[in-house]
Fold this protein.
Amino acid sequence: MSLPGANSLAVLLLLVLSTWPTCPAAHNITAILAARHDMAEFSRLLTSTGLADDINERNTITVLAVDDAGMAALRARHLPREALRHVLSLHVLVDYYDRAKLHRLPGGSADVSTLFQASGDAPGSAGMVEISERRGGSVAFVPQEDGDHDAHAPAVLFVRSVHEAPYNISVLQVGAVMSSPAAEAPSSPDSSRHRAADVTHKNGTRPGDDAAADAPSRGGDGEGGDRADGGGDRAKKNGAIGTAPGWLSFAWAFLLAIKIIVVLV
């Protein structure tokens, strides 16, 4: 026996379920760069320095990727891990820029914050990057130093778009590695301790456990090659786990709706 209005209620519940919001799949910078075999080193260093996780946690981000040939100059400097992380952080803009937006800059230029500035380790206004369209249509990226453009920092030119997912993540290839004295300067002990605390909080491990796990893979250049593959796996797992709550809530709502429909009808 059907109750009055039961069919209408059932239809309404089905309509609600059909428009139930689900969590979008998190982007995974390691998976995006996996399609570019000539960017293997850049991808590996993002993972070994922990930047891959930071990128994957951001909803809106632009990564200025460098191919293996362009990474040679950075590799030759043998930077410690924290300085390497800061340099790579200059290549992560905390805003969305794709090929089209690069050629629509208001006034022909824009100053954009990076993960280096967002980390709190950049002094003053260091960590900002100026994007400017130059004569002939080329687009240049130049890091700032203490609020001014560093006269000694060469421009890094845009090469091509690698991946665009408006307005979540964009990966743009640039011709070389950007850097600055502020990024390569040694970190203060306080910032290092805060960084270690953040990492252990994310991973759910104690500081001693994390240090023991890192010790065999740390080298003078801070690359940590063995950790890269494991970090990539963790990044993929984190991306998959991040979508679970949306699917679980949808499943519970679907089962509840079916139960209500059965009772009413």
User: Anything to note?
Assistant: The two ends are 7 Å apart (CA to CA). The first helix runs from residue 6 to 18. The mean pLDDT is 75.
